[in-house]
Amino acid sequence: MKLPTLIFLVLFVGVAFYLWQESGDDDSDDSGDGDGGTVGDASNGLGEGGAMQYTGTIVQKEEGDNLTAYPDADGYSIGYGHHSSDVTAGETETQAQADADFQSDIASAVAFVNNHVHITLTQDQFNGLVDFVYNVGTGTALKGTVFALVNAGDFDGVASKLEEYVYSGGQKLASLLPRRIAEAAGFEE
Known about the structure:
The protein has 189 residues and is mainly alpha-helical. The chain has helices spanning 3-23, 49-63, 95-116, 123-136, 138-143, 146-151, 155-162, 176-184, and strands spanning 66-72, 75-79, 82-83, 167-168, 171-172. Strands 1-2-3 form a 3-stranded antiparallel beta sheet. A two-stranded antiparallel sheet has the order 4-5. The radius of gyration is 16 Å and the shape is globular. The N and C termini lie close together (10 Å). The relative contact order is 0.13.
């Protein structure tokens, strides 16, 4: 296992355990296998409640928090990578606005994954796809083959394909590779 993947997994498990301990909520899947049913099935807990919280924690760590708009490949973003045509250069927002935008954006990414995946996923696979969609956007996610590979069960293909998404505005960004490796880790067999 590659060192960045191992570091991500250790951090992920630590955050997940911490959030589980803090929530004190035991609405988890009772089947004991940890994988549950299909994504979006409330009985498995994937992407719902606490799972969405720690998926969100991973995304927030990757995106950072900028209360002043910054340029990205297609305009400007603000907060935790919130991108909208309404965001303009120099715009600022409060922490409460950044948090509200984030909650809306992460819920959209979770819904997208739930609506476009038709097979059973592990929590790590689900989290990787949510982070991917949050980062590249639903339009890019729809144009690519990642979700077709997921639904075909070609997890090696998914892992390889995710690692190709390291370009922004036509330029290769070395900073995206560790993120893609972390997203792909759940699909590597």
